[in-house]
Automatic annotation (TrEMBL):
This is GDP-mannose 4,6-dehydratase. Its EC number is 4.2.1.47. Signal peptide: none annotated. It is an enzyme of class 4 (lyase). Residues 6-322 form the NAD(P)-binding domain. InterPro entries: NAD(P)-bd_dom (IPR016040), NAD(P)-bd_dom_sf (IPR036291). Keywords: Lyase. The keyword Transmembrane helix does not apply. PROSITE patterns: PROKAR_LIPOPROTEIN (PS51257). The keyword Transmembrane helix does not apply. The lineage of its organism: Bacteria, Pseudomonadati, Pseudomonadota, Alphaproteobacteria, Rhodospirillales. GO terms for molecular function: GDP-mannose 4,6-dehydratase activity.
Amino acid sequence: MRTNLMVTGVAGFVGCHLAHAAIDQGFRVVGIDSFAYSGLRENLVDLAGRERFDFEEADIRDGAAMRRILDRRRPDIVLNLAAQTHVDHSNRDGTPFFDVNVTGCATLLEAFRSHLAAAGGPTRASLFIQVSTDEVFGPRSPEEPADTEAAYRPTSPYAASKAGADLAVLSMHRTHGLPVAITYCTNNFGPRQFPEKLIPLVVARALDGERIPIYGDGGQRRDWLHVADHCAGLLAVAGRGRPGDRYLFAGGNTLDNLSVVRMICDHLDATSPRPDGRPYRDQIRHVADRAGHDPCYALDDSDTRRRLGWSARADFAAALAETVDWYVANPDWRRIAAARQVGPAARDARRLRGTAP
């Protein structure tokens, strides 16, 4: 059994959940994070006391640091989750996205290649897993989803930076025989997601009595995958994945954004009603759509389900309610995470603030 994992971006949303899930399955995990943006020390509190978990504060763009950690910790598998991910930020300035997502990934790949060479070459357990996104395939409808043979058609700087990283990963496999795999997923949701993302953003705005912004008419459709199901898929790749392969993970829950926001508002009405008794839907405001906003993404994960024996299990309505309840029950985490938001997106958020109608 493969027992040693290195998880970059471990203090982020998916990273911290993945570390817990991996330890539960018997893996030993070394987590890497630089706390540069969305990585929160608070996400590591529960991990710090767990056996089989070690942490190294480092940046994946620091090749010397990555080589030292790899040589000391000797992981069998590297899962690269470290990334800048917010489309709005990338639309305003894509430079940090190409720096972290492409340069960082390439630096980590070279460090892993150097480590394996020094160790006498890869073993049957060796694998570099690049965690990508459905957005690299561009707009897709549920009727014509992307599959494992789909070409890349990114439409945002964020998606282009992830596509560039993926191509770097594939080049190392084809040129040097580095054992790699790439995974793609649809929109994740669950506890501890950075508050710039739709679900935690809506919860925070609703509870704070602020306007809840909806891009355009809110008709953009996304498929929602619970973070626990995503982590189960990643660990299935860690256990049974084959070098050179691509794996797609979908939740099977395609809804338009406005419907999701209304579900959140209705749940809060039932569990945390406004003091004035009015519905949270009253706080919804439609704002100008963002540039190049893709109408829909979709993945066909049938091949992945067949090969890995994986499938998404979460019931969306129930999991969404549990997720909203977690944010309501953890105001200190919400406050700390919100304080970390910087840049134009945070300024836009402040402009949209106002008392509830």
